[in-house]
Amino acid sequence: MTAGELFGKLHYYSALTALILGTWVLFKAKGSRLHRKVGLAYVIAMTVMLTSSFLTYRLYGYFGLFHWLSVISTLTLMAGMWPLWAPKPISNARLIHLQFMYWSVIGLYMGLVAELFTRIPDTPFIVMVVVSSGLVYLAGIIGMLLHYRTWYDRFADKNHRQST
Question: pTM value?
Answer without folding.
Answer: 0.88
